[in-house]
Design brief:
Length: 276
Amino acid sequence: MLLLSDPEPEALIQEARRRQRQRSRRRTVVVAIASMLVLLGFGINQLARGGSSVRATPLTPAAVVADPPTVTYEKIVVQKIVPNLPIEKRTIETWSSSNDPVTERQVVTLAGGPRFEIGSGPGQDKVLGKEEVNYLYEGSTNTIYRTGYYLVGHLGPTMTRKAIFRRVLTEPGVRLAGSRLYRGHPVYVVDAKHSGFRVITFVDKRTYEPMFSEGISTDLLTIVRTLAFKTLPATQANLALTSLAGAHPGARTVLQASPRIKDLYGQAAFLSGQHA
C-alpha cells in the first residue's frame, strides 16, 4: 500500500530515468576518453573497444617500429572519479610483444576488489579476415577462455613513437600546449578537446611515452599515471609473459565463454562497465 509520505510513483520513475541518463552519458564519455588515451599511446587498448564518438584510429604497440623485436612492460594506475560515488582505482600491468605474432597480456587489479588476468592475440576469420581475439584466464580452474573478438584492418606502415606523436597532433581538436617538467622529466603537454570532454596528456620528450593524463567532463574525472615503462629483449622467457598461454603453459583453453566469464572480462577490461 502506498503511504501518503511516500514519493509519487511518477517522481520515482523520473528520478530513475535521470540517473540512467547520467550513467549512459558517463559511459559514453569514459569510452571516448579511453579512445583518446589509446591514441596518445597509453597501454589500455581494450578500454576503448566497444564504440566511441572519437573518430581517431587507435595506434597500438603493433604499429610501432621495433628492431630488433622487443617486449614492452608498462604499469599504469587509472582513477575514475564521479561526484558522490566511491573512487574507482585500478592498476594495469601490460606485457606486449613487438614481433609477429603480436600478443598482449594484462594483469588488472581493482583497489579493494578482485584481480583479473586478460590477454589478446591475432586470429583469422575465414570470411571477415584478420581479427583480434580476447581472452581471460581463471586461476581457480587453470583455464583460458576466449571471450570475444573484433575485426582489425591493415595497420598501415610501421611508425616510430615520434611519428605517432606527430600524427596525434594532426587529429581534430588536438594541439601542442607547450612543455613542462613532470617528476623531473621534460614532457610535452598535449591538449585534446572533443564534444563533452577534454584530455590533457604529458608525453615524455625523449621516449615519446605518455606519463600522465587527465580526462575531464561535466561529472567525470579520469586520471591515468604511468608508474613504470621498460623495453625488454625478446627472449623466450620475456615473450612468454606477453600471452596467457605462455604465462600459463599448463592451462586448458575453452573457445566458448559463458556469460559469467564474459562478465568477468567486462569488469577487467572496461572502465565504463560494459561487457566484452
